[in-house]
Amino acid sequence: MGAGPLGDTAPTTFAPPGTGREPYTLEALGRLACRSELEEAEAERAISSVMRAEASPSQVAGLAMGMAGKRVTARGPSAFVRTVMEFAEPFPSKVLDACDTGGDGHGTSNISSTAAVVAAACGMPVAKHGSRGVSSQCGSADVLEALGVDIELPPRTAARCLEEAGITFLSATVFHPRL
Question: Measuring CA to CA, which residue among 72, 74, 1, 79 is closest to residue 32?
């Protein structure tokens, strides 16, 4: 315990018992709760903990809510992107990643799936990346599943589809379930 952004009695770090890993810092959650911008190092530590599965689901949700509830500047999100990319598996070829958030909260329709098919039809290799709809009418996974596409392809099968058909779907639940 110590003096932290949540008060004198709030823990400043949390590590899952027995992990021996770098602790997930509650400092990031405290700063976000106060609507403060995360420093790059704080953002990097927080997302690293998420990517290593050290953060609990409630901590991941708190981090996402904290980021959504504040003014976005380039510093925090760029640190998140850079850190996530450190955990990413490289893709073997040049390919268009037609991804959307699906979370605009306005009940919109999914058009990125259509755009992905059009781009592939024009000869651009496409890895359509997405998930089910949460706050929109439907997500990419919902659209493609309705069209008969197997949306839970393992990585090797997805890569083979890209090679043979010029398009593949990368399910968020398969490729990065922690996010």
Answer: 72
